[in-house]
Amino acid sequence: MRMVFESPDGKRAREVLSEIMQRYEKRYPAVTTMLEEAADDILACFSLPEKHRKRMRTTNMLERFNQEIKRRTKVVRIFPNETAAVRLITALAAEQTDEWLSSRKYLDMSVRTKTKTEAKLEVKLVPV
């Protein structure tokens, strides 16, 4: 599957996915069927600009946030009630949001590509 996501574009990714499904069709028919049904969802990241693909198809940021929640709640060990736990996790979420808004840009939206509709409209609006 790594070869699918490392493909240079959606067309090549679809070809690689098809090759994988053909290769394992007899050995793992259930997996092949699942891949075939989910192909559009699997390849959805290829509709995004190349710089955004990896960040949008991985869960690294979410996994890191969950690790931080686990680390901070282990320190407390026993919460007096559920509200106290929710308060701590909410504070962690707010802290994470502030950090990302102030110091980092997770996705640079200036590299956004035009949709097909936007491109058609632009062509129609060109003065004659």
Describe this structure in words.
With 128 residues, the chain is mainly alpha-helical. 69% of the residues lie in helices and 0% in strands. It contains 8 helices and no strands. It has helices at residues 2-5, 10-24, 29-37, 39-42, 50-57, 60-76, 82-103, 116-124.
Keywords:
8 helices, flat, 128 residues, mainly alpha
Strand content: under 5%
Low-confidence stretches: none
Structural class estimated from helices and strands: mainly alpha
Q: Report helical residue fraction.
A: 55-70%
Main sheet record: none
Can you count the beta strands?
0
Cα shape:
flat
Tally of individual helices: 8
Mean pLDDT: 83
Rg (CA only): 22 Å
Distance between the termini: 48 Å
Summarize the helix and strand pattern as letters.
Answer: HHHHHHHH
Summary of the model, kept short:
The chain is an all-alpha fold and 128 residues long.
SSE inventory with pairings:
Elements: H1 2-5, H2 10-24, H3 29-37, H4 39-42, H5 50-57, H6 60-76, H7 82-103, H8 116-124
Helix pairs in contact: 2-3, 6-7
